[in-house]
Amino acid sequence: MSSDRNKQPAIQGQRVGLRPVEQSDIAVLESWTNDSAIQGSYNMFGLERMNGLASGFQARGLLDDDQATLMIVTLEGQIVGSISYHVVRYGPNSGSRAYNIGLDITPEHRNKGYGSQAQRLLAEYLLQTFTIGCVEAQTDITNLPEQRALEKAGFTREGVLRKAQWRAGDWHDLVVYSCASDRAPHRASRARLLCRRRRHIDPRRGAAG
C-alpha cells in the first residue's frame, strides 16, 4: 500500500522510518484489522470491531506513554506496515516496567528488511525516551522469519513460554526476546543496544511476526 502524501517519518532509519498515525491513516489500519493476508496465521485471534481504532485516535491519537501505534513508512512516505508498543509491568513501581512491541508488514513489503529495521528504531526510541531498562517482544516458536528479524534488530532470545497463546483452535508456544540499553548519562542520540537476560516474562501478548 502507498500514501498519496509524501509523509516524512519522524524517526528515520536507512530504509524506513516511523511516524505517528494521522486521521487519514485510520481507514488503512481499519482495512487491515480482519484481513488474513495482512494479519497472517500468527495474528488472527478472532474478528475485531472496525471502529476501535477511530475511537482510540479521537481519544488519544493512538499515542501515549502506555501504548501506541506508529506507521512504518519508506523514506519517500510509502506506508509498508504498522508497529505498536504497550507497557508490561514486573512490579508496582515505575522502575519495574518495560515495553512489549509488535508489528504488521504488508505482504508485498515483506522479506525486504523493513520489519527488522522498524523494530530496532522503535527499541532505540523507547530506550532513549522512557526510563526503562528493556524492550521485549514475543513471537510464535514456528515464526522463524520474525525470530531472525528480531535478532538482526539487536534482540536476544530469552526463552520459551509453553502454551502461552490460544489461537486457531490450539495452544502455541511463544519465543521471548529482549533488548536493553546501558543508559550512560548524557549519552549520544543513538542508543547502543545491549542484550541481557530478563528473568520475568509477561505472557499476555506476543509480537507480530
Give an overview of the whole structure:
This protein has 209 residues and is an alpha+beta fold. Helices cover 22% and strands 33% of the residues. The protein has five helices and nine strands, in the order ββαααβββαβαβββ. The chain has helices at 26-32, 36-39, 52-60, 114-129, 144-152, and strands at residues 11-12, 16-20, 67-74, 79-89, 97-105, 134-140, 156-167, 170-181, 193-194. Strands 1, 2, 3, 4, 5, 6, 7, 8 and 9 form a nine-stranded mixed beta sheet that branches. It is globular and about 40 Å long. Mean pLDDT is 85; it is low at 183-209.
Task: Give the SSE map.
Layout: E1 11-12, E2 16-20, H1 26-32, H2 36-39, H3 52-60, E3 67-74, E4 79-89, E5 97-105, H4 114-129, E6 134-140, H5 144-152, E7 156-167, E8 170-181, E9 193-194
Parallel strand pairs: 5-6
Antiparallel strand pairs: 1-2, 2-3, 3-4, 4-5, 6-8, 7-8, 8-9
Helix pairs in contact: 4-5
CATH topology: Aminopeptidase
Q: Please, what is the average pLDDT?
A: 85
**Structural class determined from secondary elements:** alpha+beta
Radius of gyration: 16 Å
In DSSP terms, counting alpha (H) and pi (I) runs of 4 or more, how many helices?
5
Number of strands: 9
Task: Summarize this structure as a short list of keywords or feature phrases.
single chain; 209 residues; alpha+beta; Aminopeptidase; globular
Give a quick rundown of the structure.
This protein has 209 residues and is an alpha+beta fold.
